[in-house]
Design a protein that fits this description.
The structure holds 2 protein chains of 2 kinds. By secondary structure, chain A is α/β, with parallel strands linked by helices. Chain A has helices at residues 67-83, 98-109, 126-133, 151-161, 202-205, 207-211, 231-241, 258-268, and strands at 10-16, 27-32, 49-53, 56-64, 86-91, 115-121, 137-142, 168-172, 189-195, 215-219, 246-249. In chain A, the strands form 2 sheets. In chain A, strands 2-1-7-6-8-5-9-10-11 form a 9-stranded mixed beta sheet, with helices on both faces. Chain A has a two-stranded antiparallel ribbon with strand order 3-4. In chain A, β6, α3 (126-133) and β7 form a beta-alpha-beta unit. Chain B contains 2 helices and 6 strands. The chains are: A alpha/beta, B alpha+beta.
């Protein structure tokens, strides 16, 4: 599709069920990027305004560019609500510690709540393997040319995961502080991870990402003594950019602050259904 | 480069609404604070429309300037660049314009 680098815009979605040792079976599904219809879908009735201009005519569309993604995201949200599943959109720059946070969360909370994971990366299945080792069902989405997950990819991931009522689906977005901010996935909450090794200026530099966060997790706090990170300034900037967001400090390496994160998760997780 | 996906969304939306039309022009509205770079959309447009009923279409983009209100100093200002920071240094702002990302109209033959 792309004439410059020859990449195709096709995302590949693979399921990694937690399997008995030795079994490596995966199911996979090639998914045409942003061109996917999810379940039942009601077409809107459009009123076209026509105006003639020579042999050509102008048709007023007046629609949001991301209307289709937003519609699919709403379908995901309805599907999750009906099932009683909590979906979290976890976003950060690459290397902020999303996968490590999820590994520790799965290890420590796996017996108390059912957690499954949708992993988004441009390529490779490294994160899916890591997460599966910690005992979770995982779907790996390789976005190919894409720099973010979209609602259609997540719809496919959810269908493969088939999460039970009362469970949590962690959607680990592609590591990127720009693009994922624009795409609603149908999640109930947006969590942004900001590691202390990245510096304290990220809320100022990437306000779109922080503006709609429900929770900002300051990660790798065990490294605070070794890096130049002004926690007060960072917290003040997060508060200005996202006045309603809660902030927590965590270290997935030492476990500091993780209980507060678990409590936040538990407060949002629906009760298992009959 | 989410502009590739954004441009694909434009093509998808137009072909969904007008599956049989030969589209000769697409008019978009992109706000300065939408997080989408108009030049990158222009760059992607020819690649993405290839082989669709938008192939060869002209792309016209109206770029909408950002307009913000500062909650600290109460001034209205037009942000300098894609990030809204008030000249007083505050980032506590309300965005009044500039977040548009819309397909206005298309011309068909």
């Amino acid at each position: 599709m792309c004439a410059t680098c020859g990449c195709s815009g096709t995302a590949v979605v693979r399921l990694f069920p937690v399997a008995p040792a030795g079994a490596t079976g995966t199911r996979q599904h090639a998914h045409p990027h942003a061109n996917h219809e999810h379940g039942q879908h009601e077409h809107q009735i459009h009123h076209h305004d026509y105006s003639l201009q020579g042999d050509e005519r102008t048709i007023q569309l007046e629609q949001k560019v991301l209307a289709k993604n937003d519609r699919l995201a709403e379908q995901n949200r309805d599907w999750l609500r009906e099932r009683g599943v909590l979906a979290i959109n976890l976003m950060s720059s690459p290397g902020a510690g999303k996968t490590t946070l999820l590994e520790r969360t799965a290890r420590e909370m796996g017996s108390k709540m059912a957690i499954s994971v949708i992993e988004g990366d441009q390529a490779a299945m490294l994160d899916a393997e890591r997460i599966r080792s910690s005992g979770c069902h995982v779907v790996q989405i390789n976005t190919g040319a894409g720099c973010h997950l979209d609602a259609a990819m997540v719809a496919e991931g959810l269908r493969l995961l088939d999460p039970p009522g009362g469970s949590v689906v962690m959607i680990e977005n592609v590591g990127n502080l720009v693009c994922p901010a624009l795409f609603d996935l149908g999640e109930q909450a947006r969590v942004v991870l900001a590691s202390v090794t990245e510096g304290d200026d990220k809320p100022r530099k990437y306000p779109y990402m922080f503006r709609r966060a429900d929770l900002v997790l300051v990660s790798k706090t065990d490294l605070l003594p070794y890096v130049d990170f002004d926690s007060k300034r960072h917290a003040a900037d997060v508060r200005k950019t996202a006045p309603d967001a809660l902030m927590l400090q965590v270290s997935a390496a030492t476990g500091a602050g993780m209980n507060e994160w678990y409590a936040w998760l538990r407060r949002r997780t629906p009760a298992p259904q009959e | 480069m989410h502009e590739l996906a954004i441009t694909e969304s434009v093509v998808d939306a137009v072909t969904e609404r007008l599956p049989d039309a030969r589209v000769t022009c697409v008019r978009l509205e992109i706000g300065a604070l939408s997080g989408v770079v108009a030049d990158s959309v222009r760059f992607c447009f020819d690649l993405v429309t290839e082989g669709t009923n938008l192939e060869g279409a002209r792309l016209e983009i109206t770029e909408v300037a950002g307009r913000c209100h500062c909650k600290v100093c109460s001034c209205d200002f037009e942000p300098d660049g894609p990030i809204a920071i008030c000249p007083c240094g505050s980032i506590e702002i309300n965005v009044m314009a500039g977040e548009e990302l819309k397909i206005q109209s298309v011309q068909v033959a």
